[in-house]
Amino acid sequence: MEKNVKSPRRIAVTWHPSLAEAHVLSSEIVSVIKQQYDVEYIESFSLNDSKFREALSEGKYDLMIALGGDGTMLRAGKLGAPVHVPVMGVNLGHFGFLVETQRNEWRYRLDDLFSGNWDTDKRMMIHAEHYRGENKLHSWEVLNDIVLARGLSIRPVHLFVHINDIELAEYVADGLILSTATGSTSYSQSVGGPILRPDMRNMLLTPISPNLCVDRSLVLPDTDTVTFILGGNVEAVISPDGYDGDALEFGDQIRAKASEHSAEFVRFEDKGVFYRNITRYMQRNPTIGGKRS
Q1: Residues 145 and 219 in one domain
Q2: 2-19: pLDDT as tens digits
Q3: Which listed residue (38, 49, 62, 70) is catalytic?
Q4: Choosing a second label site near 248 at 20 to 30 A (CA), which of 90, 194, 267, 272?
Q5: Same domain assignment for residues 84 and 176
Q6: Which domain holds residue 140?
Q7: Hey, what's the torsion of the CAs at 160, 191, 235, 133, to 10 degrees?
């Protein structure tokens, strides 16, 4: 983590558009900051607001405060990464693995924020591209993972994997997950992958229900390029960070490597908070009865 050296002056408060509580809280946070702290300006937007995204891309802000859960932090972190804007999260979701500040803590955390008592936690991202022949169809920046998996058919998919143009293996499985260290506690962990400390710059290749093939995860350095080639005739899809991606056809390639951008999160606690929280988080299921955060 990198120690912060100055107080934020230009702030965007953004919230999950489906959470009414988040919209109300954003107004309260804006009011408190205007009254109690010295800022150049502060504005509030829904995370989906095109005006907010345009202003952010133009370098208007030096800090985001994001209200929601882990999904909100993923989206805000990816938006801020290209312009090096760190994100302070306030947890209104069910899990909050990425969000350090709970909903009853934000007032005193503002004192820490404007006193400079915080660090920047940089998280590696993955850049992935979808090719059909020589045509690039789509590209993504992901903070958790990319998943290549079977579609409507229950039959396993065939995926050839190359590391730096060297053939690694042919996988016959329900799918493959390529995750960052941040994403190692997400889908990859649920299918048996190892947990990496989130500030590590590694990619993690984990098979989903492999059939008579390599059945262990592989930890890769951030200097590697991973290429997936779809074989066989089974329908497959790619999903970046759990969202809709592309349908894959025979011979399609997905090329993935470390992104040139890093997501940046505000951290008030030391690195040990990850170890203190990991067991507590793993002992409960946050998705029961919950909404996407």
Answers
A1: yes
A2: 555 578 999 999 999 888
A3: 70
A4: 194
A5: no
A6: 125-260
A7: -40
Concerning whether 49 is annotated as a catalytic residue, the answer is: no
Only one residue has tokens 């990425």, namely 98
Instruction: Tell me, yes or no, whether 109 and 135 share the same domain.
Output: no
CA-closest candidate to residue 29, choices 8, 49, 50, 48: 8
Amino acid found at 25: L
Give the number of domains in the chain. Answer: 2
Closest to 259 (Cα-Cα) out of 114, 126, 109, 134: 126
Same domain, 168 and 112: no
CA–CA gap between residue 61 and residue 19 (Å, rounded): 23
First-last CA distance in the chain: 25
Task: Residue 69: name the closest of 15, 123, 125, 150 by CA.
Answer: 15
Displacement of CA 284 from its chain's centroid (Å): 21
Q: 172 pLDDT exceeds 90?
A: yes
**What are the start-end ranges of the H helices in the chain?**
20-36, 50-57, 70-80, 106-115, 187-190, 272-282
Residues 43 and 150 in one domain: no
Per residue in 238-252, pLDDT (tens digit) is 999 998 889 999 999
